[in-house]
């Protein structure tokens, strides 16, 4: 089981779109996938067709009330498992402030999930994909403490690299607690090849990140923006769209890294 967090403290860079569509594309390649929403906005939850305000159990119950991850799992109509989130998760920073181990709650829950899957006859997950909030708050720290690799979606615009230092520093600092933690890859999102600035920034990112850059470019594609309104990953909404094909290519790259 590999745990991948999709993180970047900037909003609107395509984290949720990447989390949902990478999960769906991995599932389409017959991988056993669990998508976990760690953003109180709950966009990944509704993007997979679940009603975020009508869930039996969410990540708030897991992190604040000690409910086990396995009890909170829902099956998404899109063919993979999901644990949802909604605004109940928003108070976590305040509620857990000063708690000892507040940054390790999620890691403990994941360890329980792993051991329960080992004991039962259920197939273990190949990938657990975590959609993070646009912030380096306690929720994101919890994700990074439990994660093997981080995928950073980046939009190729002028301020793309701004704020990245904070994320890199946080990752660096957390490797003390979690030695496995590393940047698994950087993915260019909302890409428009006709835009000169986008091409320039893209080249700059390649120079900066080298082998950490995924070759797949996720184009700006209206189907990717429409699909969540239908509660579907793009692959189930319009299988042959550019957006759907790009996320399948990205999934292939992610699988290749696992070998
Ligand atoms: P984040 O989770 O980083 O805040 P989102 O994935 O929610 O970002 O994306 C922000 C907005 O941009 C959403 O409305 C989403 O539908 C849209 N979007 C994301 N990626 C693309 C893309 N490749 N093409 C078109 N629209 C996109
Ligand atoms: Mg998001």
Automatic annotation (TrEMBL):
SUPFAM superfamilies: P-loop containing nucleoside triphosphate hydrolases. It comes from the Bacteria. Residues 1-183 form the AAA domain. Transmembrane segments: none annotated. InterPro entries: AAA_dom (IPR025669), DNA_Partitioning_ATPase (IPR050678), P-loop_NTPase (IPR027417). Pfam families: AAA_31. PANTHER family: P-LOOP CONTAINING NUCLEOSIDE TRIPHOSPHATE HYDROLASE, PARA FAMILY PROTEIN CT_582. This is ParA family protein. It comes from Psychrobacter coccoides.
């Amino acid at each position: 089981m590999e745990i991948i967090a999709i993180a970047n403290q900037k909003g609107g860079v395509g984290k949720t779109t990447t989390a949902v569509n990478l999960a769906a594309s991995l599932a389409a390649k017959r991988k056993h996938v669990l998508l976990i929403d760690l953003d109180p906005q709950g966009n990944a939850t509704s993007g997979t067709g679940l009603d975020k305000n009508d869930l039996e159990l969410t990540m708030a119950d897991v992190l604040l009330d000690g409910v086990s991850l396995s009890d909170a799992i829902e099956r998404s109509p899109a063919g993979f498992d999901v644990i949802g989130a909604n605004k109940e998760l928003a108070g976590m920073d305040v509620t857990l402030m000063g708690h000892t181990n507040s940054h390790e709650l999620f890691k403990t829950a994941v360890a329980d999930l792993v051991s329960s899957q080992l004991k039962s006859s259920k197939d273990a997950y190949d990938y657990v994909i975590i959609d993070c909030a646009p912030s380096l708050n306690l929720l994101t720290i919890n994700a990074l403490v439990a994660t093997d690799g981080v995928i950073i979606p980046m939009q190729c615009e002028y301020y793309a690299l701004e704020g990245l230092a904070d994320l890199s520093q946080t990752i660096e600092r957390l490797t003390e607690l979690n030695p496995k933690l590393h940047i698994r890859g950087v993915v260019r999102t909302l890409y428009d090849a006709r835009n000169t600035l986008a091409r320039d920034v893209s080249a700059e990112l390649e120079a900066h990140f080298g082998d950490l850059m995924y070759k797949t470019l996720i184009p700006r594609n209206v189907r990717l923006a429409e699909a969540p309104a239908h509660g579907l990953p793009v692959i189930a909404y319009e299988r042959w769209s550019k957006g759907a094909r790009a996320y399948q290519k990205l999934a292939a790259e992610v699988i290749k890294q696992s070998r």
